[in-house]
Design goal:
The protein has about 230 residues and is mainly β. It has a six-stranded antiparallel beta sheet with strand order 2-1-12-11-8-9, with no helix packed on it. A six-stranded antiparallel beta sheet has the order 15-14-24-23-20-21, with no helix packed on it. Helices cover about 0% and strands about 45% of the residues. A hairpin with a 7-residue loop joins strand 14 and strand 15.
């Protein structure tokens, strides 16, 4: 089976199964993979299977379609683990439904059929990216159960601007940070005795490895790398 995991601001929003050998992506309701956002064209892109191989094709959209950070021209081969980026949405092509299950549908609707031009925020061609990494989230942040790591920096704490929030009266605004250095992610504790990695208190930075468990008060995180 093949699925598309839809992320907005790195948070998993929906998981859609591709039930046949093709599926279109767009803002209109007739698309099997719908993204209801005015930056997305009514009929934006298509995923097709030919001779047991998958392909992604942009359908003359206004804002373009990107595959692993590179704008596609014509039809491009697609493999499991690839990320399709459309405006501010990341669509991950996987062969099993995500650990977070199906979440809420994406609705950032606009009554007009006009497609808004948006700036190109995709990385430049040739930019080296880390492998597919994400956090499974349990505890405090109940509206996020899977966070795709595709930026260089994430903050964890009580601040309303934190990427992952931790509650409690005496919780500092910044408890920990996760930063990408090269192609790896590192955990930086900012408050001793509040951050645990695999059950042990962490007092200095450490490189994260697949299946690491991070505990910050009631927030439980699992670092996964593919």
């Amino acid at each position: 089976m093949s699925f598309i995991e839809i992320y907005f601001n790195s948070s998993l929003q929906n998981s859609v199964e591709i039930e046949s050998n093709s599926a279109t992506i767009g803002r209109a309701g007739y698309n099997p993979i719908q993204i209801d956002n005015k930056g997305v064209s009514l009929l934006h892109a298509a995923i097709t299977q030919q001779n047991k191989e998958w392909f992604i094709e942009d359908l003359n959209s206004t804002n373009g379609t990107y595959l692993n950070g590179v704008k596609i021209e014509g039809k491009q081969k697609l493999k499991f683990g690839d990320t399709i980026s459309i405006c501010k949405h990341d669509l991950k092509f996987v062969n099993e439904r995500g650990h977070g299950g199906q979440a809420q549908n994406i609705h950032q609707s606009d009554d007009s059929d006009r497609t808004m031009m948006v700036g190109n925020s995709q990385p430049a061609a040739g930019t080296q990216k880390a492998s597919n990494c994400y956090l499974l989230v349990h505890g405090e942040k109940r509206n996020i159960n899977k966070l795709l790591l595709n930026r260089d920096y994430y903050s964890i704490g009580k601040s309303k601007h934190s990427d992952l929030c931790v509650g409690g009266w005496f919780t500092p605004k910044l408890v920990a940070e996760i930063s990408r250095i090269g192609n790896s992610y590192y955990l930086f504790p900012r408050k001793n005795k509040l951050v645990k990695l695999n059950g042990r208190e962490l007092s200095s930075q450490i490189k994260l490895s697949n299946d690491d468990s991070i505990t910050i008060k009631n927030l439980l995180l699992k670092f996964m790398e593919e």
